[in-house]
Amino acid sequence: MERRLLTFFIASTAFLLLYISLQRLIGPQPVRPPAVAENAEADNLLADPEALDQDEDSENADALGASDDAAAARPKSGKLITLGSMDPASEYLMLMTLNSEGAGVERIELTERDEKGKLKYHRVDVRSGYLGYLAAQPAAEIDGVQVNVVGPGTPADTAGLKVGDIIVSVDAKPVLNRNDIDDVLLESKPDDEVKLEVVREGSSTPVTITATLSDHPLDLVRLASDAGIDQIDGNLSRQSCLMTLAQINRKSIPASKLSIPKLVNPTELVWTSSDVEAGDEQQSVEFDLELSAKETAVVGGSPVRLKRSYTIKPGSYAVDMDVQLDNLGEEAQDLAIRLEGANGVTLEGWWYSNKISPNWSGAAARDIIYRTAADGHQLISGFNLLKRARKEVDEPFQTIFAPDGSVDSRNLKYIGVDAQYFTVGYIPAEDNNSFTSFKRAAVGLIVDPDEIPRHKERAVNTSFFLDTETATVPAGGSMRQSLRMFAGPKDPDVLANYGLGDAVYYGWFARFASLLAGLLHVLAGFFGNYAVAIIVLTVIVRGAMFPLSRKAAVNAQKMQELAPELKKIAEQHKEDIQARMAAQRDLQKRVGFNPMAGCLPMFLQLPIFIGLYRALSVDIELRQQPLFPGLDWASNLAGPDMFNYWGDWMMDYFGGRGTGWLGPYFNILPVVVVLLFLLQQKLFMPPATDEQTAMTQKMMSIMTLMMGLFFFRVPAGLCLYFITSSLWGICERVLVKKTIPSKTHFDLATPEGVVEGTAKPTEKPKVTLAQRIKDQVNGPEPTFDRPNKRKKPKRK
């Protein structure tokens, strides 16, 4: 049976590999990312279930202020503004896209370069070429898409594409919407050239420009509608870091809302923006919005002006932000500011990653972390937030601290959205150690809870907000809050500089995992490749355990030699299981065999396994490290190898993202692991002595096959560890077997008489296994272990 299972497994794998090879040539093309709606109506939906009830109130407030000079002077449409650069010659580590409609953050891409000039953090799940974030929309005048933003240093910018250009074709293929562009680029690779046919403002004659594509930079923050292959039904699009009024005199935001009812919502208005101030030391932009007397009168207030600014510096992952509220009325007003956090943080690998979490309920791809003087470092799971949102519709936000809390509970060190390898959160300004000016902090979801599909709950869109202390601002006065936003990798050295060191969490075996990670860094620095480092680490570990492994191999050899005698005992005691077990234990005791000795090396390897798994799941240095340079299908040791995409033809039950057992990729390394496990069982498992043992061995083989399902989505680096360890174990057993002396004839004394057989001597060549058994059974004859000068027995 075991041989049939092994044959079937090998034949199935061979057939699958053949099918995949043919699929690449004649099969259907990979599934395109889900379509993105061309209108941005969903972008302004609020997170709470009663958000739509506020639309009518906002419209009424707009109508009241329609004739105001302040309202009339506002820009009629928003525009996108960029800070930072993707230029390799630039020292900026990010490229931010801001939207004057709402004055929030629409996108943050990490553009840091490594020593070879390549993107240090790029998308590991996208292999096509990258043109740039264009925020393209269908053009009104002609068939094509209009470009709304061109980031500095992007391939689009380098090629000469400009804001306002209308792209009518890409590589001679007509485009009518942004998805058409994505479809064409899906077939491309980095460094490929594409030809864009463009119609520019004031001209009707198309011009052709050539762009050289690059790798996809990691889009650390993005709209849910721009998530591409990670777009999840139920996640709502909303800009990050939005600012609004938390209180104006006696009117404040209710607990279940995101804005003051009946007051025009600043997050839905177009703010006036200044020109970007660019210099060698920093880039910055300012936004301001005035709410008129008529607009604020509906809530018993006077006119106010909201101001905010964003500043980034070369070589920094921090965004300095200042928010300000000016009282334009003739009397003092009680005012407070609400500042929302980031949302739409990267979902990279959410369907296979296993984020280490202190919560028993597990972590989501996006969790909330914070630290206060009272609570210390805490993590709020996205899973728990979704469960809460589905049960408590009237209170969609979970409070971290409130005005009636203690002083220590409102002493906030940081708060942010935490992903597996990246974090985006608020930290105090450079000259402060903590926030003491916020009266309320709460976390929640930017989702429709009932629309999140089953098995995709890990991908929920989480966020938070902060309310400042209410201040009595005199006429002509202002209230101001300065803070920073960290948006970068969970590199321990980087996080320590920003006070976010606790964001790196290894869980149990933390010291062991960090030790292994450090050793991998040293080995990788020496060999120049993390895959080789994992192989060398495995050899070091198995080499250090060789004495124990050799004893286990000798023990296994003894087991094979005793198998015939154990089988005879089983035949003699077919009807009496207790007698059979007792006789087997007696035989094992007389010959010095310990059946548990072979388990010791396995238990000693368990901490190595757990530590390496957690190092791969936490250490960002192992992310996007290739198995070997040039292998696109194994370019990330911290994730599955993704040998071939089968999501376009595999049923969703097996190949779905999150919903499938296996995921949308066929991974080859777990197959190699399972085949080596089966080979080890075949070569070294002793023959079955009875039906029960035979059934146990068959079940072990089946369990090994089933284990392949669980290994299918583990990191490629962990599979590499098991492959190396299995190959070492096979070679070790073969070597040990050759070093054991040849079999010697012996008579095994049993209570029923003398049975002839063969056995190998033990490790002490002075006494054979047969002699030891005879000595223990006959008794009077002195044994080797007794202190005498008995001559060595001659070997036959």
From TrEMBL:
It is a multi-pass membrane protein. Residues 756-796 are annotated as: Disordered. The lineage of its organism: Bacteria, Pseudomonadati, Planctomycetota, Planctomycetia, Pirellulales. Required for the insertion and/or proper folding and/or complex formation of integral membrane proteins into the membrane. Involved in integration of membrane proteins that insert both dependently and independently of the Sec translocase complex, as well as at least some lipoproteins. Aids folding of multispanning membrane proteins. Residues 118-202 form the PDZ domain. Belongs to the OXA1/ALB3/YidC family. Type 1 subfamily. One of its GO terms (molecular function) is membrane insertase activity. This is Membrane protein insertase YidC. The chain crosses the membrane at residues 519-541, 591-613, 661-679, 700-723. The keyword Ribosomal protein does not apply. One of its GO terms (cellular component) is plasma membrane. Interacts with the Sec translocase complex via SecD. Specifically interacts with transmembrane segments of nascent integral membrane proteins during membrane integration. It comes from Rubripirellula obstinata. The keyword NADP does not apply. Keywords: Cell membrane, Chaperone, Membrane, Protein transport, Transmembrane, Transmembrane helix, Transport. InterPro entries: Membr_insert_YidC, Membr_insert_YidC_N, PDZ, PDZ_sf, YidC/ALB3/OXA1/COX18, YidC/Oxa/ALB_C, YidC_ALB_C, YidC_periplasmic_sf.
